[in-house]
Design goal:
Layout: E1 2-6, H1 11-14, H2 18-26, E2 30-34, H3 40-45, E3 50-51, H4 62-72, E4 76-80, H5 84-92, E5 97-100, E6 126-128, H6 137-142, E7 145-147, E8 171-175, H7 183-193, E9 199-203, E10 219-222, H8 227-230, E11 236-239, H9 243-251, E12 256-258, H10 265-274, E13 278-280, H11 288-298, H12 306-319, H13 324-330
Length: 338
């Protein structure tokens, strides 16, 4: 069977699809991946045959993808929530398709079209990687969902040599993602976290490490961190609330402090804090002292383990969800649906 995956050209939108694409390839399916120019390297490295429709940079429109559908003639198109153009192109070509989520159902007003309101491809199922306890209740009640376990994926990058060896102090992972981080916010977070009796690994992302100046000895700053490799070692994650980091922290049962900046991050922060699996600080509440205080409440201690217990309960819920390998074997069933 030939399967075409399609996503926006960003880490947050492409990486959630890669585990299923790899599983489909491993199951013997011929996999192709349509995306803009920013994300081909990890796709090619995993044998997913990436290509760039119509010189697209970030978005892919229906008109961009139509000639590629005629060329490849896929049996199934897996199109992520942020790419309604792919759903439109597949529907117009009469090719079955499945939406692929990247977290909680996106809220209105963040600049993306809601896939649940797409008029040209109604009724298509959704591969839902969000654990039901955190998912939007309206989405749970009204949509055709295929539960799929979220599996963190990262491009390879070396971790600090001491990770996994220094167990004397807790490990805090700080990231503001690839789209919303600022030097001021990252500096404030580092200032606060450095006061704790912990080791801190910082993924600087869009902020150049040189913008942060000298950092304390218990802080390690890297431009890019292999998040999937680091997460099993962390005790607390302090981050922006992007779906990938939110779900990644939950897969390992790590409590999190979320500093939302935009897009779906506020909704993710609300869901995690409401579930008791973490805390949040809204933009007007952020300071170095507040970040230190809230993170201290999440660090491993003999008492006050409620946030950690809640995070671990969600990790167990995620572990019970069907794996990408299981879903890959079921993909042929969806070629008979339009």
């Amino acid at each position: 069977m030939r399967v075409l995956f399609a996503s926006l050209a960003s880490v947050g939108h492409t990486y959630p699809l890669i585990p299923l694409a790899i599983a489909a390839r491993n199951a013997g399916h011929e996999v192709h991946f349509a995306a803009g120019e920013e994300v081909p390297a990890p796709l090619a490295a995993n044998g997913l045959r990436p290509f760039r429709p119509a010189d697209s940079f970030y978005e892919i429109y229906a008109e961009d993808l139509a000639p590629e559908l005629a060329r490849l003639r896929p049996d199934l198109v897996v199109h992520e929530w942020g790419l309604p153009g792919a759903a439109t192109a597949a529907a117009r070509a009469g090719i079955p398709g499945i939406w692929h989520g990247f977290g909680r159902m996106i809220p209105e007003g963040i600049g993306l079209q809601l896939p649940t309101r797409h008029t040209e491809a109604p009724g298509r199922p959704h591969l839902d990687i969000c654990p039901p306890s955190l998912q939007d209740k309206g989405f749970l009640a009204t949509e055709d969902r295929i539960a799929l376990r979220p599996v963190p994926f990262s491009a390879p990058a070396a971790l600090p040599a001491w990770v996994g060896q220094d167990g004397s102090r807790p490990l805090i992972y700080l990231t503001l993602g690839t789209a919303f981080g600022t030097a001021d916010l990252l500096t404030a977070a580092i200032e606060g976290l450095a006061t704790l009796d912990a080791r801190v690994v910082v993924a600087a992302g869009r902020v150049g490490p040189e913008q942060l100046g000298d950092v304390p000895d218990n802080v390690t700053v890297q431009p890019w961190v292999s998040q999937a490799s680091l997460l099993p070692h962390v005790d607390v994650v302090v981050h922006h609330g992007g779906s990938g980091t939110t779900l990644g922290a939950l897969t390992v049962g790590a409590p999190q402090l979320i500093l939302p900046q935009g897009a779906d991050q506020f909704a993710n922060a609300d869901a995690v804090s409401s579930a008791g699996a973490g805390l949040r600080l809204l933009p007007g509440e952020v300071s170095a002292d507040a970040i230190a205080d809230h993170t201290h409440r999440l660090l491993p201690r003999r008492r006050h383990s409620g946030h950690r217990d809640a995070a671990r309960a969600i990790a167990e819920e995620i572990a019970r969800m069907p794996s990408p390998d299981e879903i890959a074997c079921r993909l042929p069933d969806y070629t008979r649906r339009t």
